Amino acid sequence: MSHTDVVSRSAGELTAPPAAPHHRRAVHLKRMTPYLLILPAVVLELLVHILPSVAGVITSLFDLNQFYLRQWFDAPFVGFSNYSVALNFSSSVGDALVHSFAVTILYAVVVVAFSWFLGFSGALILQQAFKGRGVLRTVFLIPYATPIYAGVIVWDFMLQRDNGLINHVLVDDLHILGQPAFWLLGNDAFISTAVVAIWRMWPFAFLMTMAGMQSIPEEVYEAAALDGAGPWRRTYHVTLGLLRPVTAVLLLMMFLWTFNDFNTPFVLFGTAPPPSVDLISMHIYTNSFVNWNFGLGAAMSVLMLAFLMVVTGLWFLWDRRGHRHGW
Amino acid sequence: MKRSKLAAAVALAAFAGAALVGCSSSSGSGSGSSLAGTTITYWATNQGPSLQADQTILTPELNKFTQETGIKVNLQVIPWTTDDTKILAATVSGKGPDVLNFGNTDAWTFGATGALLPWTSSELSQVGGAGKFIPNVLAAAGQAPYTSLPLYSQAYGLFYNKAMFSKAGLTPPTTWQELVSDAKKLTNPATQTYGLAIQGASVSESMHFAYIFARQNGGSPFNAQNQPTFTTAGNVNGLKQYLDLMSSGVINPSDAQDSTGTLQASEFAHGKAGMIMVQNGSMSSLASQGMSTSQYGVVPIPAPSPLPPGGQDLASFVAGTNIAIFKDTPHLAAAIKFVNFMTSKSEQQILDEKYQLLPVLSGASQNFLSDPAIAQTFISILNTRAQPLPVKANTEAYQQAVGAQLVTLMGKAATGTQLSTSAIEAALQSAQAQMPASQ
Question: Which of A57, A74, B60, B256 is most buried, by the most CB atoms less than 10 A from its CB?
């Protein structure tokens, strides 16, 4: 901004000096240019993200249910009563929320860990040029590019107990299992959902890691090799080390997305997921859009938002410390 | 700089305020100009075996209406999975169809929002009065002033495969104990044949059976003061009666994953299941699977004999679809004319026959189902052994809470977990806690 300031000021001085207010207005306009350019983005961000979030927080303070849907502002103000219902761990609502929260954290950790591991391995392997590398790279990106519903519905068919492809392969072809298993019920449902989520998420990790790896210069590898580092040590210290900034952001983004994952459990199970896959996004959806108890659903959303902000805040602190140590 | 920032902030605040206020505004009602040439929007529910089938069935009838009155109808067929959400969105935004359908168990929940036109005597007189409907069926829509009117009716029946029964030397069951023993005789895991097939993962079906079997065992979801009473012995025993079917092995465990009914219909049509408990509307699904009505018979779902204390010989609840008008519609007169058309004797006869549904009008003839004997059975179930679900505004929450718990329990039973009474009671307790407190 200072550059444009200087330029505009000197431009104003070089040309024939116009009347004083005109000059001020021209400079005024030039100073406003950057703000005008980002104004559409800011407006849209406010309308699409910020204002609805604020509305959600406000909704959580009211007892908004089906009776007040048409006149929001008539709903009774109940203060933090929705929060106390949600956080009352001795009641079944609070208990279910805690259980759902624990399941979601476990789910997010498992999915992010495996996705990142697969993505990193894939990117590492595809660093060397070999015949068919381009094709493989495209194929690896397909799960991420597939529309979510189409992809998850195909998995739903594959996971069916009687006619599904998975059981057919495991039981009839490979004889790994004696009996066809329930992939959409009980504890196995968690594994199925996690596998589907990893299938969707790992190409993103692969893409980001691959892009990050491109910026690591060859000389560093050569120097490390000259110093006597074997391939594993080179990978660990050079590749992983120099990828830290990328990995840090990648892990945070994947954690936030997976924590909020609604599409995968909804397409697989509808509104009645098995307890082992009771993700918090589904919990909130059921309370808001099925029970029509929007106040409670909004309170749960705010609690989830608060948790994710704490996680992000901690991440920032960790990231900052890393920068200070000079990555 | 400061001034422009302030101006921008004020503009944004005004914008935001207008957006929020706009959400809750409502437009005025329609004018009384000539109706010919107006177009109304109609959200129909998926009554046929597919969305396309509904389009095929309804379009000629709507064309008839347009020829008679000059009013065009913009038809949209909404799948059941998104019906509630779409109506919710329309209620909140004030922008919805002119006429819409929904399941009659949701009638009071939607009515409570105030988004639907109440049918006072002046509107009712334009459709022939409330007296033209079967009283039991109208009662399922609540009490006057009604916010929706019955359009189609359904009841549950026990369908049995005639060939399988005669081969095993069985007669259709008249008590619940007989049903269980018949099912056991028909079950042969070696040939993957089972006595019964269910939609184990369907929230709505689960709730229906939770209600019917609870009533058979003397329980009820709500008491006289509208308080939820899910955990009484009658309710628990009712759920246990349904879950024991899966635990005793007479149902294919894979049915616990079926939420759409496709697996169930396919199993019954191909002789892999001897009995199913479904609504009469499923007859069209069976027909599309290649099963003719001569291959199966229908009897009422039996109750335990002797009846438990407080129990009722209930075979079904009054299922069905209601039709309603959005209060904010700008085409009120045209919408009422359309509702009159859809609930007229002639149209009801045509639609009931095409959809295989039961009539909602008193004194309707009984030749609407392809098999008169089956039609007679359903009519008698509807008139004598069916009762409406509790007509409280919380019915939808009840459906989700109890239905979802029963789906989970059924999944546990399918994977071999033994379900104790206390486990069922705990699940119902959890469901009850989710009920919204206010009425």
Answer: B256
